[in-house]
């Protein structure tokens, strides 16, 4: 049984797609922008992996996700007719990622899991972003780990290893919890235990993984189900 649980956040803990769409509509619709707001969220998210790959590959020094998100937003401005939207509004829109809502099962599941395990995000999101999400959703972390600590992005090995080291734990004393098999496979390769939590509606109805695509230690339908499986 692990001593610490590390969480992927975007998609696993937080419903990023609905939250970004909601914030985009709130800020842009009053300024006359008309768009399919879910497609807007998808277009923004589509640049997520390519932006981080510039850093993972060594082509660019480490840059925190808030900055990358702002650069991604700049790239999709023409696609959605945002050329005349003022920079201060776009800066506020960039904070949409700080105002996401957790999936409905998270708060109850985390209350149980947090009573038994050390809890930390192991996310590509930066510390300020993770802190804002925790405060908005009433979640308690024992630490905020991930990209800002490792100065790199998942699924690079050092991100998982730095998280374990931060708690003075060995990798096999930690468990990565995610809705994405690629993340779990990378964590397992570094010796961490793994748990898959299903988020079938992450990218829209029935678009997410309906189960793990790689070998995992636990496969759960919700955070509450995971707490049941871990005896929390």
Would you write up a description of this structure?
The protein is an alpha/beta fold. The chain contains 11 helices and 8 strands. It has helices at 16-28, 37-46, 48-56, 65-76, 87-94, 106-116, 127-137, 147-150, 157-166, 181-189, 223-229, and strands at residues 4-7, 14-15, 101-102, 118-123, 145-146, 174-178, 193-197, 218-220. It has a 6-stranded parallel β-sheet, sandwiched between helices. Helix 1 packs across helix 2 and helix 6 packs parallel to helix 11. The chain is globular, with a radius of gyration of 17 Å. The mean pLDDT is 97.
Alpha-beta classification: alpha/beta
Tally of separate helices = 11
User: What is the first-to-last residue Cα distance?
Assistant: 11 Å
Tally of strands: 8
Helix content class: 40-55%
What string gives the helices and strands in order?
Answer: EEHHHHHEHEHEHHEHEEH
Arithmetic mean of pLDDT = 97
Low-confidence stretches: none
Overall, the morphology is: globular
- Rg (C-alpha, Å): 17 Å
Q: Numbering strands along the chain, what is their spatial order in the largest sheet?
A: 5-4-1-6-7-8
Q: Hey, roughly how much beta strand do the residues contain?
A: 5-15%
Largest sheet: 6 strands, parallel
């Amino acid at each position: 049984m692990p001593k610490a649980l590390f969480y992927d956040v975007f998609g696993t803990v937080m419903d990023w797609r609905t939250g970004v769409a909601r914030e985009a509509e709130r800020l842009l619709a009053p300024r006359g922008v008309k768009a399919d707001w879910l497609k807007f969220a998808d277009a923004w998210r589509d640049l997520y992996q390519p932006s981080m790959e510039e850093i993972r590959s060594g082509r660019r020094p480490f840059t925190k996700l808030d900055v990358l998100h702002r650069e991604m937003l700049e790239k999709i401005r023409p696609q959605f007719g945002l050329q005349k939207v003022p920079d201060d509004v776009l800066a506020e829109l960039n904070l949409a990622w700080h105002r996401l809502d957790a999936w409905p099962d998270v708060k109850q599941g985390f209350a149980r899991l947090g009573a038994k395990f050390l809890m930390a995000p192991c996310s590509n999101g930066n510390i300020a972003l993770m802190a804002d999400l925790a405060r908005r959703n009433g979640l308690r972390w024992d630490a905020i780990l991930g990209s800002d600590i490792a100065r790199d992005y998942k699924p690079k090995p050092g991100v998982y290893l730095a998280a374990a080291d931060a708690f003075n734990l060995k990798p096999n004393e930690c468990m990565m919890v995610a809705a994405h098999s690629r993340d779990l496979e990378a964590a397992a390769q570094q010796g961490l235990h793994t748990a898959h939590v299903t988020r079938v509606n992450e990218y829209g109805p029935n678009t997410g993984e309906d189960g793990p695509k790689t070998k995992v230690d636990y496969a759960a339908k919700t955070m509450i189900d995971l707490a049941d499986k871990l005896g929390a």
